[in-house]
Amino acid sequence: MRSPRSSSAKGFDREIRERLTDSIRTKERVLEKLVPAIERAARLLIDALEGGHKILLFGNGGSAADSQHIAAELVGKLIVKRRALAAIALTTDTSNLTALANDFGYDTIFARQVEALGQAGDVAVGISTSGHSPNVLAAIQAAHERGLKTVALTGRDGGPLGRMADLAITIPSDSTQRIQESHITIGHILCELVESHFSG
Fold first, then answer.
1. 200 pLDDT exceeds 80?
2. Which of 11, 134, 142, 199 has the fewest CB atoms lying closer than 10 Å?
């Protein structure tokens, strides 16, 4: 007779394989559909940084973590030593975030920072798996008003975010997990391309 532990382990094996397969298939769809958009995004970032401008990144939850991750790779390094590149995640200053949420409302926490820090020629990167996050949408609107270029990393049908941004990279999936996995893969690719250019 099988122990409960061995039966459970077999069930996990199947589930793990299903999820890995789903992740691989999602990335295959990204490969089929999104290479031109990823290349355009890389060129936008490179052009901005070459012009002495900066990258502002923002999102909620896992997308906040991706914003910080990408900004850290640009300021620091991914693979090779090169000059520091100007990137700021608008998700990290707890005093700003809590004051803005308390005084103006949560939907303003990124837009207000874009108003304070964004300049024409900068690039604003809004990350939202659904494309419906009100605070990300507000920040993209603020970016347009200040003359920033805008990039959206989103999923599903892109939502309003995909339609608002100058360039949308919309992951063809309805699964938040698979969308987030593709977002950080694309984030790493963008950082590699930017780093290659500036270390070239």
1. no
2. 11
Q: What is the mean pLDDT of residues 65-69?
A: 98
- Which of 105, 154, 100 shows the shortest CA–CA distance to 125? 154
Q: How far is CA 44 from CA 93, 146, 151, in A?
A: 26, 17, 9
> Is 16 within the bounds of a domain?
no
Q: What are phi and psi of 52, to 5 degrees?
A: 80, 15
Q: Retrieve residue 46's tokens.
A: 């490179």
Which tokens sit at 61?
Answer: 């939850």
In CATH, what number is assigned to the domain containing residue 162? 3.40.50.10490
> Is residue 4 a part of any domain in this protein?
no
Of the pLDDT bands very low, low, confident and very high (cuts 50, 70, 90), residue 3 is low
Contact indicator for 70, 190 with CB cutoff of 8 Å = yes
Task: Report how far apart, in Å, the C-alpha atoms of 36 and of each of 60, 146, 170, 172 are.
Answer: 26, 27, 12, 15
Answer yes or no: is 107 within a domain: yes
Measured from the Cβ of residue 84, the count of other Cβ atoms closer than 10 Å reads 10
Quick one: which of 139, 141, 136 has its CA closest to 158?
A: 136
Q: Residue 123 falls within a domain, yes or no?
A: yes
Element (H, E) at 52: none
**Mean pLDDT along residues 144-152:** 98
Q: State which residues form the domain around 46.
A: 34-199
- 92: tokens are 């990290």
Edge-to-edge strands, sheet with 55-59 = 87-89, 55-59, 123-127, 149-155, 167-171
